[in-house]
Structure formats: structure tokens, C-alpha cells
TrEMBL record, chain A:
GO biological process: one example: chromatin remodeling
SUPFAM superfamilies linked to this entry: Actin-like ATPase domain
Pfam families for the chain: Actin (PF00022)
Protein's name according to its UniProt entry: Actin-related protein 4
GO CC entries: Ino80 complex; NuA4 histone acetyltransferase complex; Swr1 complex
UniProtKB/TrEMBL annotation, chain B:
Region span, Disordered: 12-33, 48-67, 155-237
UniProt-listed InterPro entries: DAMP1_SANT-like (IPR032563), Swc4/Dmap1 (IPR027109)
Pfam families: SANT_DAMP1_like (PF16282)
Function: Component of the SWR1 complex which mediates the ATP-dependent exchange of histone H2A for the H2A variant HZT1 leading to transcriptional regulation of selected genes by chromatin remodeling. Component of the NuA4 histone acetyltransferase complex which is involved in transcriptional activation of selected genes principally by acetylation of nucleosomal histone H4 and H2A. The NuA4 complex is also involved in DNA repair.
An MF annotation (GO) of this entry: transcription corepressor activity
Example of a GO biological process term: DNA repair
Biased composition annotated in UniProt, kind: Basic and acidic residues: 155-224
Protein name: SWR1-complex protein 4
């Protein structure tokens, strides 16, 4: 057998499985056993607006980089929200586009592994299973929880997965490679939240011209508050959703290039705050950000202030009510409907105690902890709900992943805050050093999982699905 | 340019003998004509072929072999990861298709299937027996509860008694107080008195309340206990149905008894159960099932029965509290632990020192058992033995004296005898010296026996030694027999000789020095520890002196310490 030669080290057996990891920002598709997905594409698609639907064929959707071409009457819409597929038609369309046209896959030859978030509802999982069996003819299917995949990528069976993504920040304990659902937490203080902050911040500045890259033909570098000097390109009338999609790229670049987490909390009530402000306003900390128009903005204290809201979500006050309403205070608790579809709030272990047992980190008012939980509070709270016997091992294996975790100084700040908040626990953070690895960690984990020889008995074939039905499969196999 | 050319340039005549082999080589070289670099290289090397055969290195042969041999076949083949799984996957396997599709191979299970192991969890019994089990468990629990209740009642009664007694005491106090008050207030008017009484009673009430706060606290504790019991009762009220237990067993087998996961995925209708509830139910039902089976492991049942929910919860609460400590508390605890350890060490050290001192102060202990000398017979034996030893010694001394008289008879040049009184150490050292002489004479005798030829050539010193000088003569000549002590090779001045008594700690030497100063004993000044006239005798004496001073200082130190301790203990006793 192929495995018999080298199983002692590797234990793998390649069966050419396909791994699909739909995230709220990027969707990743590739072969199991690879160290990197073959396809990393935006989780959005472009489609003709309703009034322009002249030839109403399903294939009029546009995916991937082609979205960025300015077209008249084409709107850009997201497929996923919070890692949950919302637009199933588009999703199926996108996946078959990549499976068939790009990767040229023969469905019956490959099994498919799909990642799902821990907060996936039962009904959602049901539609998911149904859709995948119905629309694709894969040999077999498996649904894997994303934190489980991440734990496999890191090779740690007991860990706490902290995924700081685009739509959501989630904290999930993983025990023996299985995600604990009742202890999982999720907030929306993630990438999109910061993008909205950046937009709000830029809009509030007078005289800043923000233009998407595709609209700019030529530019002359200027420095704010000097006005921008650029020439606009003549483009067709595009939809607002397209323009927003393009603008989001500017915000994204802004986050990538200038954000930095301050070493200490900026909103702490102690007298050092003013010093911190002075410290971070120093020339050393100043960075320039050049907008597509060629206009550069010097940013000192602001870039710390904006990034701070990962740890303290209420620190930034939106200027428009609309955005403020978009992010109501969220303490991260998830509500699950149980197997029998009667909704009942999950009784958390020692819920009353937990708020006392988690000493609020310096600088956070007691009122904010229950209202809106920042990153470290979210983790601390999760830790306090985990069974006491597991807490030490989990705290020692905290995996930080997700694109937003790449902001400089984030892990250092997180480590410091967790240590002060949990003096009794020995905290250790694990974050992949490679940035592309950290962004695609769930996919890589799925790739590891689907190429393990021992995993192959877990696949569920279409035949079995048809015999047992979605309900049973979900309860018995995709636990 | 070839090697020949070089030899020609250097005018070196080559041996005629060497040429024939070269000629032999040449045709072989011609047989495969070299071109380009190879030829140039060959010309340089010439007939001088290198000692190691370069052309046939391991690498080259391997690549050749590799080109020649066929690659081992790999086949893409269908397989079933599990017997009952209705799916076929393809994977690449080493080996030819014919081999792999042979019957033997196809019958083999999938390589990784052996890792698919399941826990051995007992099957849940049918509903009737389950009900029976639950009844038994309930009864058992009731019994336990009853016992507990009994104990509690006993406790409560004891408390009541105490309380009554204290109440009685208080009442007596009260009454006495009342009497006093009454005595005081007798002259007052009657209505006022009643008012005062009211006030008094109020005051008393308040004071009683204060005194009773403690009792209240006690009662609160009891209440808490009661509450926890009530909780237990209410949990009992949330009975385990057969279906729910079945669900629990299913989860347990699915997640292989990983309790945190079982608890996480546990979602049964409206019941909310803790992890401990699940464990308790599972363990007690398992114990019942095993008990009902005939060939079951009694140790396993015992271990299953050991599980106690309340203990488990207590343990977890304890751990929780341990984690809740603040950093300051943790630091304090650590420092306390370190301090405690230091104390322990100090105590150990002191005990050790004290035992050392005690042995120092103690009379020397006999190393041999004295029981054999305790009887009268033993004593006579001992006496006889001692007598025999004494006789032997006397005989020997006699013999030696005879020897000496014989020696002195030989008319050898003898220094004028020194009066006995002149050598102070004469009496003391005699036995020692004679002993040395014995040793030496024995040695010489041996020499004589081994090689008599050497004897004739023996030098004058040996001859002199063999003549067995008397004590006085030896002293006069300054002769000294180094018995077994080690000597440093070469010649040394006695003034620079190191005294063995000086091998002490620096601090000890200092105090020794001060003592010597006190006694007005000259130390040749500075750090050199020499008497002014370093003769052998003075040196040995000096060494003796230093040793005894050191011992004295040691004893004094010990004495001080003991005295201090005694004083301490006395003061402690006195305080108490």
C-alpha cells in the first residue's frame, strides 16, 4: 500500500480531494495535500442589474478579477455574509465556474471538503448539504468546522482558535480536534468594521478627495491639506455597488499599510493616556498614505486610534448615525437552535460568575465589558466559560489567525492583555509567521485533513446521503 | 605538454625500466582517442595514473544503473476506506496492476482501517431494566440521604443544645441585669419604670441581636447546605428518562467519552444538565449494567462507583478559585513558599551542626560491643588478654635493649653521650623511635635476604644505619626516620616547610593568630607561621600547639552556641 512505506511520519494518503473554504472576503479552492489553494478569489460577483436583464441566463454572472472591469449596469454583490452563504444561486454558480472552467475537475473522481463556521445554523447546514449533493456530482462530501481545520493546520488538538477575519471575529475552543460550539463567541468588530471606520474617518476630513483607482487617469503627488491634482478617466456609468466595491479596496490598502496597534490601551482612564497620545503623535510614528488621486495624508496618532477599536470597539465614534447603527454593542455570545428546532437560550456554565471571574483589563469600564467585547475580553470570557480542567491547556495553545491579525503589534498587545487578565493561566499565542499562511489557514488545515489516510472513512457519498437523508447525515456524520 | 616534456625540460633521465609499462599503456590510450579537455588532461597526467580510480565513482555507476533499470510501477487503483462505506476512491499504490488486483491484495483491508478503533462502551439495557436500575439508584440515594439527614439532625440537635445553654446563660445575665435595674429604679415612678423597661428590653434585644449575629451566620451556613441539598433534590426531580439516557449513551460512544465534547453537543429538549450530571448518570448506569452481567470486572465497577458529583463540583470550584488569584496574591504565595523553604533549610543546618557538636563534646564511644566483657568470665578473659599483650611488649623491649647493648659493644665511633635529661622528649618518643628502628631494621634484613651481593656494596650510611644507633646518637647526628609520611622530593628548608596544622580556613587561622598573640608566642611576624628557630622539635611542638588552639576555638564556638540556645529556650519558657 502506498501508505505503508512512510506512514510512521506522515500518515497521508492522497485521493485528490478538493477543498473549498468560503470566507466572507475570499473564497479558496484547491487540491488537498497542497500547501496553498489553487484559487483565491473574491467572495463577490458581478451581475446585470434587474432593469438591464436582457438575456436572462444564469451564466451572466462574473467572478474573480473580471469583476473589476467597469461595466455599465453591472452590480457587485457579496455571496457570503459572516462566512455563511446567503446567495445560493450565485454560490453554486461561482463554485461550478471554478470547478469546471478553471480547475477542470471531473466530479466523480474527487471528494469535496467544505469548511463551515461554528455558528452555522441547522437549517443552513441542511441547505448546504442539499445544494452540494444536488448541484455537484462529487464522489463524496464532508463538512468540516473551520476552527477544527485551523487546529489541524497547526497540529494542535487542544487549542483556542482566534479568527480575526473580514466580517467577524470568532473565538472557538477546539478539544481533541472537535470545535466546542457552546463556548464559541463571535463579534463583528473585524475587517469590515475597521473599513467602515476608515471610510467614516476619511469622509470627516475636509478636502480629501477619495476616488477609486479605476477612475484616475493621471495624478500629481500632493500632500494634504493641499488639494488633490488628478485627471479623471472617462468610464461608463457604473452602479454604486461597483463603486463601493472598488472603494473598499482603498480602505483595505489603508488598513494594510498604516494601521498599527498601540502598545497600551489608549482609552484607559489613567493619567498616562495623554502621554501616550503625545508619544504616538511623534514624528517617528508618522506614516504617509497616498490615495489613488495622488494625495498623501500624514497619519500619526490616528492610525493607532483607529486600530485600537479591535480591542476597544466603542473607542471610535462614528460620525454618521447609519454606521453607528450598523454595529450595535455585541458581547459575542452565540445562540444556537438545538437539534429539535425549539429555540432556547443556551445556559452557559457559570455565566453569572464569569463576569466577576474575568477581571476587566485596565482601561475598560465595567459597562463596556458586557455591552461590546473587544478582542482580549472576548478571549478572556471564552476562557472563563471553558471547563476548568481544559482551561490551562487551551490557554497555552491560542492560535491567532485571519487577515486582520496581520496588523503590526496585534499579537504582542493581545499577549500582554491576556496575561494581565488571566494571571493564573500561562498564556501562549501561536501565529503563523507567513502572512499568506495566516490568511488561508483554514483552507490549509482542510487540505491537511482531507489528505490524511485515517480521514477517508469519514467521507459521505451521495448514495449514503440519498439513503439516510440530510437530517441523519448532519446529525450522525458531520458533527 | 606532457609529463615527458617536463622531465625533458628539467633534464631528468628516466629509468629505462619504467618505459616498457608506458609503452604498454600507450596503445590502450590510442584505442579510445581522447578529444578536447580529456586529451589535455590525459597529457598532463601522462602515464602517472592517479592512485584512485576516478572514473568508477559510486555516483556514475548508480546513474548508469538507474538508466538501465526500469522504474518500479505505480498504479492508480480503487479502494474502499471502510468496508461498510458506499464510496470508492482512487489512490496511487506502488506495484503493478496485476499484483495489486490479485485476490490476496484485494482481500486486504485498507491500510488505515486499523486505526479506526472504537471504545468499548456497554450497550444500554432495555427500558424495563433501566427503570429498575433507576429505582434502585433512587432507593440507594434515599438511603444515603437518610443517613445524611440523620447526621444533620444530630448536628442540629447538638447545636440547639448549645444554643439553649447559651440562651440560658444570657437569661440569667439578663435577669441579674434586670434586678440591678430594678434596684436602681425602685424609687422612680411606676409608669416611668414601665417605659424604662420597654427601652431596656429594646436595648437588650439589640444587644441580643448582636450576640446572635454569629449564630445567624451559622444558620446561614446551614441554610446554604440545605439549599444545596434542595438543589440536589430538584435535580433529582429533573429525572432521567430512558430516551435521554439512550441519547447520552449514543453521544458517549460517538465522541468516545470525551466529556467536554459530549457536554458541548448535548442538546436534549428542555433539560439543562451540567457536565457532572452527565458523568454521574453515565457512570452509575454503567456500573449497574456491569453488575447485572456475570463476567464483569469488579475493579471496574468499583472505580465507576467511586465517582461523586459533589466532590467533582467541589474540586472544580477549588480549581476555579485557584485561578482567580490576583498576580499580587500569586507573588505573595510564591515568596511565602520560598521563605518557608529557607526556614526549613536553616533548621536542617542547625540540627546538623548541633549533632556535630554533640558528637564532639561526647565521650568517645566504643566501636566494639562491650557485651562480651559484661560477665565475670568475659572480664577474666579480657584481663588475661591484656596480660599476654603486656608480656609480649615487655619481651620485645628486653630484646631491643639486648640488641642495643650488643651494638654498643661494637667499637664504633660514638659521639659523646648526651645526658638523658637534655632531651626532653626522650621518654615520650622512645617507643616511637624504637618502632621506627624496628621497621628499618626489618627492611634492611629483608634486603640482606633478597640480595646478599648488594650487602657488600652497601654504602656507609646504610652501614651506619644498620649499626642501630642509640637515641642520643641519633639526636646528636640529627637523624630522623620518616616512617610512612610522604616526603616532597628535593631539598627544602625547614623554615619554609608547611605545617599540617595550618591547613585550616582563613578565618580560623586569624583567630588562631590572635590567640597566639595573646599568649605572647612569637610567630616570626606577618603571615609566615614559623617559630623563630625552626628545629624539628620546635616545629612539631608548634604544629601541636596550633592544632590544639584550633580545637579549643572549635569547642568554645560550640559552647557559645549551646549557651545561646539554652538562654533562648529559657527566655521562651520564662515568657510562657
Amino acid at each position: 500500500m502506498s501508505g505503508s512505506n512512510n506512514t510512521t511520519v506522515y500518515g497521508g494518503d492522497e485521493i485528490n480531494a478538493i477543498v473549498l473554504d468560503p470566507g466572507s472576503f475570499h473564497t479558496r479552492i484547491g487540491y488537498a495535500g497542497d500547501d496553498f489553494p489553487k484559487v483565491v478569489t473574491s467572495s463577490c460577483y458581478a451581475s446585470p442589474t434587474d432593469d438591464a436583464m436582457t438575456d436572462s441566463t444564469s451564466s451572466s454572472r462574473i467572478f474573480g478579477e473580471a469583476i473589476n472591469v467597469p461595466r455599465a449596469n453591472y452590480k457587485v454583490s457579496p455571496i457570503l455574509k459572516d462566512s455563511i452563504i446567503e446567495d445560493w444561486d450565485a454560490a453554486v454558480d461561482q463554485y461550478s465556474h471554478y470547478f469546471k472552467t478553471i480547475l477542470n475537475i471531473e466530479y466523480p473522481e474527487h471528494p469535496l471538503l467544505v469548511t463551515e463556521p461554528v455558528w452555522a445554523e441547522h437549517s443552513y447546514r441542511k441547505t448546504m448539504v442539499e445544494n452540494f449533493y444536488e448541484h455537484f456530482d462529487f464522489a463524496a462530501l464532508y463538512l468540516a468546522k473551520a476552527p477544527t481545520c485551523i487546529s489541524f493546520q497547526q497540529g494542535r488538538s487542544n487549542c483556542l482558535v482566534v479568527d480575526i477575519g473580514h466580517d467577524s471575529v470568532s473565538v472557538t475552543p477546539v478539544i481533541d480536534g472537535i470545535s466546542l460550539l457552546k463556548n464559541s463567541m463571535r463579534t463583528h468588530y473585524a475587517g469590515q468594521f475597521l473599513s467602515d471606520q476608515v471610510k467614516d474617518f476619511v469622509d470627516s476630513k475636509q478636502g480629501l478627495a477619495v476616488q477609486s483607482t479605476y477612475k484616475v487617469r493621471s495624478k500629481t503627488p500632493t500632500v494634504y491639506p493641499e488639494a488633490a491634482q488628478y485627471q479623471e478617466r472617462d468610464v461608463t456609468q457604473v452602479t454604486t455597488s461597483f463603486d463601493e466595491y472598488q472603494q473598499a479596496k482603498v480602505w483595505h490598502e489603508f488598513k494594510e499599510t498604516v494601521f498599527e496597534i498601540p502598545e497600551k490601551s489608549l482609552t484607559s482612564p489613567n493619567p498616562q493616556t495623554s502621554n501616550l497620545k503625545e508619544f504616538y503623535s511623534l514624528e517617528v510614528h508618522r506614516r504617509m498614505f497616498e490615495f489613488p488621486t495622488g494625495q498623501s495624508v500624514p497619519l500619526g496618532f490616528e492610525r493607532f486610534q483607529l486600530a485600537e477599536s479591535i480591542f476597544d470597539p466603542v473607542s471610535y465614534k462614528f460620525h454618521t448615525q447609519e454606521l453607528a447603527d450598523k454595529y450595535p454593542a455585541n458581547n459575542g455570545e452565540l445562540k444556537f437552535s438545538n437539534l429539535y428546532d425549539d429555540y432556547k437560550p443556551i445556559k452557559r456554565m457559570r455565566k453569572a460568575e464569569s463576569s466577576q471571574s474575568t477581571p476587566t483589563p485596565a482601561g475598560f469600564g465595567a459597562s463596556t465589558t458586557t455591552e461590546a467585547r473587544g478582542l482580549s475580553q472576548l478571549i478572556t470570557h471564552t476562557l472563563s466559560t471553558i471547563d476548568i480542567d481544559l482551561r490551562a491547556s487551551v490557554a497555552h495553545n491560542i492560535i491567532v489567525t485571519g487577515g486582520l491579525s496581520l496588523i503590526p503589534q496585534l499579537t504582542e498587545r493581545l499577549y500582554n492583555e491576556l496575561c494581565t487578565a488571566n494571571p493564573g493561566l500561562k498564556i501562549r499565542l501561536h501565529a503563523a509567521g507567513n502572512s499568506s499562511e495566516r490568511v488561508n489557514q483554514a483552507w490549509i488545515g482542510g487540505s491537511v485533513l482531507a489528505s490524511l489516510g485515517t480521514f477517508h472513512q469519514m467521507w459521505v457519498s451521495k448514495e449514503e446521503y440519498e439513503e439516510a437523508g440530510a437530517e441523519r447525515i448532519l446529525n450522525q456524520r458531520f458533527r | 605538454m606532457s609529463a615527458n616534456d617536463i622531465l625533458d625540460v628539467l633534464n631528468i633521465q628516466r629509468d629505462e625500466l619504467k618505459q616498457p609499462p608506458k609503452k604498454k599503456l600507450k596503445p590502450t590510450a590510442d584505442s579510445n582517442p581522447r578529444l578536447g579537455m580529456a586529451r589535455e588532461l590525459y597529457n598532463l597526467i601522462g602515464p602517472n595514473t592517479p592512485p584512485v580510480n576516478l572514473s568508477s565513482s559510486a555516483y556514475n555507476t548508480n546513474t548508469k544503473d538507474r538508466f538501465k533499470s526500469k522504474p518500479s510501477p505505480w498504479t492508480r487503483i480503487e479502494f474502499k476506506p471502510r468496508k461498510d462505506l458506499k464510496v470508492n476512491f482512487n489512490h496511487w499504490v506502488k506495484g503493478s496492476r496485476e499484483l495489486l488486483e490479485s485476490e490476496e491484495e484485494t482481500k486486504k483491508p485498507y491500510f488505515f482501517e486499523k486505526f479506526n478503533v472504537k471504545l468499548d462502551i456497554p450497550e444500554l439495557v432495555d427500558e424495563e431494566t433501566f427503570d429498575l436500575f433507576m429505582k434502585e439508584i433512587e432507593e440507594h440515594e434515599k438511603e444515603v440521604q437518610a443517613i445524611l439527614a440523620q447526621r444533620r439532625e444530630e448536628k442540629e440537635q447538638a447545636r440547639k443544645r448549645e444554643r439553649e445553654e447559651s440562651a440560658k446563660l444570657k437569661e440569667t445575665e439578663k435577669s441579674s441585669d434586670n434586678k440591678l435595674h430594678q434596684v436602681k429604679k425602685e424609687p422612680a415612678e411606676v409608669p416611668k419604670e414601665s417605659q424604662g423597661d420597654d427601652k431596656k428590653s429594646d436595648e437588650e434585644d439589640s444587644s441580643n441581636e448582636k450576640s446572635e449575629t454569629k449564630e445567624h451566620q451559622d444558620e446561614k451556613k446551614e441554610d446554604q447546605e440545605k439549599e444545596s441539598e434542595d438543589e440536589q433534590k430538584s435535580e433529582l426531580g429533573q429525572k432521567w428518562s430512558y430516551d435521554e439516557t439512550k441519547y447520552l449513551f449514543e453521544l458517549c460512544s460517538a465522541f468516545e467519552l470525551k466529556w467536554p465534547i459530549v457536554y458541548d453537543r448535548y442538546n436534549w429538549h428542555t433539560t439543562s444538565r451540567t457536565l457532572e450530571d452527565l458523568k454521574e448518570q453515565f457512570y452509575r448506569i454503567c456500573a449497574k449494567i456491569f453488575e447485572s452481567q456475570e463476567n464483569s470486572n469488579p475493579a471496574l465497577i468499583e472505580s465507576l462507583k467511586v465517582f461523586s458529583k459533589s466532590r467533582e463540583i467541589e474540586r472544580k470550584n477549588y480549581l476555579e478559585n485557584l485561578l482567580k488569584r490576583t498576580p499580587a496574591e500569586i507573588a505573595e504565595e510564591e515568596s511565602l513558599v520560598i521563605e518557608a523553604r529557607r526556614f526549613e533549610l536553616a533548621a536542617k543546618k542547625m540540627l546538623l551542626e548541633r549533632s556535630h557538636l554533640l558528637t564532639l563534646l561526647d565521650s568517645p564511644q566504643t566501636t566494639q560491643p562491650i557485651q562480651q566483657y559484661q560477665s565475670s568470665q568475659g572480664l577474666t578473659n579480657l584481663y588475661n588478654n591484656l596480660m599476654i599483650i603486656d608480656k609480649h611488649q615487655k619481651k620485645r623491649q628486653l630484646q631491643q635493649q639486648q640488641h642495643r647493648s650488643i651494638g654498643s659493644l661494637n667499637q664504633d665511633p660514638v659521639p659523646p653521650p648526651i645526658p638523658i635529661a637534655a632531651s626532653s622528649s626522650f621518654k615520650k618518643d622512645r617507643s616511637f623511635q624504637t618502632h621506627l628502628q624496628q621497621y628499618l631494621s626489618g627492611l634492611l634484613k629483608q634486603n640482606q635476604i633478597v640480595n646478599p651481593s648488594v650487602k657488600q656494596e652497601a654504602n656507609t650510611i646504610q652501614q651506619l644505619l644498620a649499626k642501630r644507633l642509640t637515641q642520643k646518637e641519633e639526636e646528636a647526628y640529627g637523624l630522623f626516620f620518616h616512617g610512612t609520611e610522604k616526603l616532597t622530593p628535593g631539598v627544602i628548608l625547614r623554615s619554609s616547610q608547611k605545617l599540617p596544622g595550618l591547613q585550616q580556613k582563613q578565618s580560623v587561622l586569624k583567630s588562631v593568630n590572635s590567640v597566639l598573640h595573646e599568649l605572647d608566642i612569637p610567630t616570626a611576624g606577618g603571615t609566615s607561621w614559623k617559630p623563630i628557630m625552626p628545629t624539628r622539635k620546635t616545629m612539631t611542638k608548634y604544629d601541636e600547639l596550633i592544632r590544639s588552639v584550633v580545637a579549643l576555638l572549635d569547642v568554645k564556638k560550640g559552647k557559645d552556641k549551646l549557651e545561646a540556645e539554652i538562654r533562648l529556650i529559657k527566655s521562651q519558657r520564662g515568657l510562657q
